[in-house]
Amino acid sequence: MPESAAKKPTIVEIHDELKDSYLRYAMSVIVSRALPLVGDGLKPSQRRILYSMHELNIGPSTAHRKSAAVVGHTQGKYHPHGEQAIYPTLVRMAQSFNSRYPLVEPHGNFGSVDGDPPAAMRYTEVRLSELGQEMMADIDKDTVNFVPNYDGSEQEPVILPSRFPNLICNGSAGIAVGMATDIPPHNLSEVVDACVLLIESPEATLEEVLQILPGPDFPTGGLILGTKGIHEAYATGRGQLVMQARAVIEPMEGNRSAIIVTELPYQVNKAHLVESIGELVRDRKLEGIAALRDETDRSGMRIVIELKREINPHVVLNYLYKRTSLRSSCSIITLALVEGAPRVLGILDVLRNFISHRQVVITRRTRFELERAQERAHILEGYRIALHHLDEVIAIIKESRSPAAARVALMERFSLSERQAQAILELMLQRLTNMEQQKIQDEYQEVIRQIAYLEDLLESPRKVLNVIKEELLQLKRKYGDERRTRIRDEEAADISIEDLIAEEDNIITVTRDGYIKRLPVDTYRIQGRGGKGVIALTHKEEDSVEHLFVANTHSHIMFFTNRGKVYRLRAHEVPAASRQSRGSAIINLIQIEPGELITATRTVDKFAQDRYLFMGTRRGVVKKTRLAAFDTPRKGGITAINLDPDDELKWVKITDGSRYVVMATRQGMAIRFAESEVRPMGRTAAGVRGIRLRPGDEVVGMEVCAESCALLVATERGYGKRTLLSEYRPQSRGGVGLKTLQITEKNGPLVDMKVVPPEDQLLVITAQGHIIRQEVANISQVGRSTQGVRLIRLDNDRVAGIAKVVKREDGDGSDQEQEAAAPEV
Predict the structure, then answer these.
(1) How many CB atoms sit inside 10 A of residue 397's CB?
(2) In the chain, what percentage of residues exceed pLDDT 90?
(3) Considering the domain boundaries, does residue 790 fall inside one?
(4) Which of 233, 526, 546, 636 has the CA that lies 20 to 30 A from 251?
(5) What is the mean pLDDT of residues 218-240?
(6) What would the pLDDT profile of 663-676 be if each residue is shown by its tens digit?
(7) Which run of H or E residues covers position 617?
(8) Which of 126, 161, 196 delimits the end of a domain?
(9) Per-residue burial over 5-43, b = 16 or more CB atoms within 10 Å of its CB, e = otherwise
(10) pLDDT in tens, 67-87
(11) What is the CATH number of the domain that holds 634?
(12) Which residue, of 129, 161, 193, is where some domain finishes?
C-alpha cells in the first residue's frame, strides 16, 4: 500500500485521553462491579452466580452440586473474570456469619469467624437457599429485562425479581472509584413491617419507621450502643455505629470470676481478638487474667477469660472494650444504583425503591399471566364450540382429505381462528367423555374469572400494592426470625481512666513527713477492744501517721495544708503499697510548697452547689464556704482560708449547712453550736471565732454532726469513751465550752475526737504505725467528766489519731466501707 494511502494518526491531548479513559473505567467499576442495584441489592457478580444456579436447577429441593460447576458455568456464560473473583463471592453469600440471610446453602468447609479460608471449590458444594430461590421467583414470567452477555451468545437478567428485600436485609459492601458503599444487614420481620407501613401510609415519617425498624441486625448479634448514628444514617444515608460484644461475668470458686464472651461485633475476627488479648497479657499491659480459652463449638461462640482472685471483672472488661475489638465502630454509607446512577439513600428511599421495583415486577407478571389466560380462554372457547357441534365437527374431519383441509373447513364453518381449529384437531378422543367435557367447561369459567381479576389488578395500583404487601407478609411468616442484635439507647461514651480503675474503697494514710499510700480497706481485720493492733507501716525515726481515711478510688481527694491552701488528687492516683510500706512522697503527686504540711483531707465525688466546706483552725477559728467554689483543679493549689501568722488550718468537713458543730480541745473542753451561726463566706475570707481557748490550750478536733449521735474522744495514752451529744447543751459560737473528759496522768491529754453512731467501726492508729480496728458499740458510753476505757495497749508508743469506718449497703446488697467523719457528697 502506498504511504499516502496509510491512515493518518489522530493527535489527542494526553490529559484529555486520560480523563476520558479514567471516566469510562470509573463508570464501569461503579455500574458493573462494585455497587448494588437498589431493586435486588445485588452486584453483577452475585446476580450472575444466582442466575447460573437457577439455570443449572440447583435449588433447595435438589441435591448440592460442586461449587466448581457453578463457578465454571458462571465464568463461561456470564462473568469472564476468573474463579478468583467468582468463588469468594459465592462463599460470602453462603457464610452465615457474613450474611444475615444467606442466599446460598453451603455444604463443606466455607471458612469461619476465625478468618479460616474456605476449602477449594472442588471440595465444596452449594445450592440455592430458600430465600435465594425467592430472589428468582417469577423470573420466567417476563418480569425483568434481559440483555446479551459479554459475547452476545446468551441472555442474562439486568435485575432479579427479588421478592426478598435483599439490599436492606443482607446489606452490601463495596469500593468503587471515588465512592464506597457499606450497608448493614437488618431483620427481615422488621423490614417487612416497615414496608407494610409505607404501603399502607405512603406519607409515613422517619420517626414512625424507626418505631418498627429500630436499627441494623447483625448475623453475629452483639450490641449497638446509642441511636444517634442510626438516626443519622437512616435520615441522610451516612452515619456511624458503635458495636460491642455481648459479654457476661460468671462467678467461679475461690472468690474468682470469669468474663464470658458469647457474641462479637459484626465482621470481627475471633482468632485475632483472642490473640490481641493474649498479647496484652504477655506485654503486661493488662493485669489480672489467669487463663484465656476459646471454647466455641457447635452450640455457639464462647470465649472464656478467667480472672485472678479478687480482680474486679468490670475493670478488666472496660479495658478490653477500650483496647481490643470487643468494641468497634462501623460506618454506614447507603450508596446504591438507582436507574443506573449512584445515589446515597436514606432508609425511606431504600424501602420505597424496593416497593417500586416490586410494583414493576407484579405489573409485568400480571400482564404476562393475563396474556396466557387470554390465550387459554381463546382455546377453551374453540373447545366449547366443538363440543356443542361434536357430530358435525367429527363429520367435517372425516370428510377432509388432510389435516390442513380439515383446519380450513372448521375455520369456515364455525368462524374459528387458526389456533382454535388446530387445537380442536389435536384434541384427544378421551376428552370427549362427559366428565372431560365438564372439566373443559369448569376450566373455562375459572380462566374467565382469572382474566377478570388480572384486568382489575392492572387497572388498580392500590391492589398491586396489596399483592406486594401480602407476599411480604408471607415471607415474614415463613422466614422471619427474632432480632439478634440488641440496641442500647445510651450512647457509647469514651472509656476514661476511671472506667479502667476498680471502684472500691481504700484506706489512705499520710504521714507527718509527707508520705502517702493506698491499700484495701479489708487489710485490717476487726479486733476486740484493747487489742494490740497490726503494723500499718514500717516505722521511720521521728515520722508518724497524721491522717488516715477511707476513699473510693474514683473520688477526688482534697488535701488542706496548715497554710490554708487546698490541692486536689484522684484517689486512684495515690500509689498502692503494702501494709508495712512507708508509701510515696506526696510532693511527687501534688505541688505542695516547702514547709507546708497536710493537716486535713476530704473525699468528694462531685462539687455540689448545695454542700459546704466547714473549716476549723488550731486557734479555734471556723469558716463555711460552698463546696462548688473549690471545683478548680489547679496544680499549684488554691486558697481555702486566710490565716493569722500563729494559726493553722487543721479540720475541714463537708456539710449541708444545717448541722451542729462540735469542737474539742487538748485540755478536755468541748463546745456544740449550730452551724447556721456561721454565714457562708468566700474562698479567701479569714473566718470567725468558733471556741474561746484558755491559755496553753488548742483545738484537737472538730466535727459536724446530727444531735442523735455520740461524741467519741481518744487520749494520747490509748484511752477513750463515748458520750451522748445531748449531754452537751447547744451554746453560742465563741464560748469556752463544757468539760468532756477528765484529764489525768493515766490517760493523758486529748488527741482526737469523732462523732459516731453505735453501728460504726473505729480505726485507732499510733505514732509508730500500729492500727487497731474495733466496733464502736464495744466502747463504753459514759458521762462527760469520766476518764474513759482502754482502746489500745501501748508499749512506748502514743495514739496519733482515730478514724471512722461505716458500713453501707449498696443496691446489690453488698457491704462496702467508707469514711464517716463527715456527710458524703
Answers:
(1) 17
(2) 43
(3) yes
(4) 526
(5) 93
(6) 999 888 899 998 88
(7) strand 612-617
(8) 161
(9) eeeeeeeeeeeeeeeeeeeeeeeebbbebbbbbbbbbbb
(10) 999 999 999 999 888 888 899
(11) 2.120.10.90
(12) 161
- Considering the domain architecture, whether residues 633 and 782 belong to the same structural domain is answered as yes
CB 387 within 8 A of CB 437: yes
- What is the C-alpha separation between 768 and 361, in angstroms, rounded? 91
What totals of helices (H) and strands (E) does the chain contain, helices first? Answer: 17, 42
**For residue 773, is it left (φ>0), alpha (ψ between -120 and 50) or beta?**
beta
Same domain membership, residue 586 and residue 627: yes
pLDDT band at 544 (very low <50, low <70, confident <90, very high): low
From the list 493, 488, 186, the residue with the least C-alpha distance to 334 is 186
DSSP string, 589-611: TS-PPTT--EEEEEEESS--TT-
Q: Which residues of 640-672 are buried (b: 16+ CB within 10 A; e: fewer)?
A: bbebeeebbbbbbbbbeeebbbbbbbbbbbbbb
545 in Cβ contact with 510 (< 8 Å) = yes
Question: For residue 544, what are the CA distances in angstroms to 588, 701, 800, 819?
Answer: 19, 18, 7, 21
Tell me which residue of 11, 122, 103 sits closest to 51, measured CA to CA.
Answer: 103
Rounded distance between C-alpha atoms, residue 184 and residue 168, angstroms: 7
426 with 549, same domain?
A: no
Q: Which three cell numbers stand for residue 579?
A: 501494709
- What's the rounded Cα separation, in Å, for the pair 650 and 562? 6
pTM higher than the cut 0.70: no
Give the C-alpha separation, 222 to 377, whole Å: 57
> What are 413-452's pLDDT values in tens digits?
888 888 888 888 888 877 777 777 888 888 899 999 999 9
Task: Report the number of distinct structural domains present in the chain.
Answer: 4
Where is 85: in which H helix or E strand? helix 83-94
| Domain-located, residue 178 | no
Summarize pLDDT for 684-722 with one digit per residue, the tens: 888 899 999 888 889 988 888 877 788 888 898 888 888
Residues 551 and 459 in one domain: no
**Same domain membership, residue 657 and residue 603:** yes
- Per-residue pLDDT at 696: 85
User: Within 10 A of 148 (CB to CB), how many other CB atoms are there?
Assistant: 10
319 labelled catalytic: no
Are 543 and 636 found together in one domain? yes
Q: What's the pLDDT at 548?
A: 74
Task: Let me know whether 422 and 564 are in one domain.
Answer: no
Given 22, 123, 383, 524, the catalytic residue: 123
Enclosing domain of residue 281: 246-325
| Cell, residue 625 | 464556704
With cut-offs at 50, 70 and 90, classify the pLDDT of residue 107: very high
Rounded to the nearest integer, the mean pLDDT of the chain is 85
Please enumerate in sequence order all residues whose Cβ is within 8 A of that of 416, keeping only pairs 6 or more positions apart, or say none.
Answer: 382, 385, 410, 424
State whether 446 and 517 are in the same domain: no
H or E stretch at 173: strand 172-175
